[in-house]
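Q: I'm teaching a short session on how sequence maps to structure, and I want students to see two examples side by side rather than one. Could you give me a first protein with its sequence written out and its structure tokens following it? Keep the formatting plain so it prints cleanly on a handout.
A: Of course. Example one:
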Amino acid sequence: MKPHSNAVILYSRLYGIKILIFVEVKTLTS
């Protein structure tokens, strides 16, 4: 496993969490 692939996985996880929070906030406010 390359360290670069690990960084990509971390970034994808962070973006996934941000998208989930964004969707939850939109559903709560609407």
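Q: Perfect. Now a second example for contrast.
A: Example two:
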Amino acid sequence: MGSATSEAVPSALRAAAVDHVGIATADLDATVAFYRDMFGLVEVHRETNLQQQVIEVMLGPAAEHAATERPTQLQVLAPLSDDSAIARFLDRSGPGLQQLALRVADVEATSSELRGRGLRLLYPEARVGTAGSMINFVHPKDAGGVLLELVQPAEPVVQDRGRDCDS
């Protein structure tokens, strides 16, 4: 691995944190129950995203166990249709890890900087993601085989319990 310091990385590329890890599943309820019952994770947010044809649940530590104000979460994704990206992923790879998401300050600036360095992004412009965040993805072929999501959280960060969003 390289030895570049964070000062050598342009501010547009500096990740603030690992935002979440995405897990694809055909059985949302069973997967959520597993992480709840085995590890004590709680449902922080749930929404239906019609644009991406998924239902998603964000899981995190109970507030009294969280190490930070905004801890890394697990995102459990289940397809709403057979032609969604998550359905195609499940057909190709089966259930399991689907993405790694990095939290960034400005998804458009980060996307522009990455394109300038020759990386392919899946969307020409950022799209609305979970809980009103703005997102884009680095193509896995340019990120060591990992689907890398860039997440600019909506402000203020709201942790609700079950709001549906048809974005």
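Q: What should students look for in example two?
A: Point them to this: The chain has three helices and eight strands. Also worth mentioning: The CA atoms of residues 63 and 69 lie 8 Å apart.
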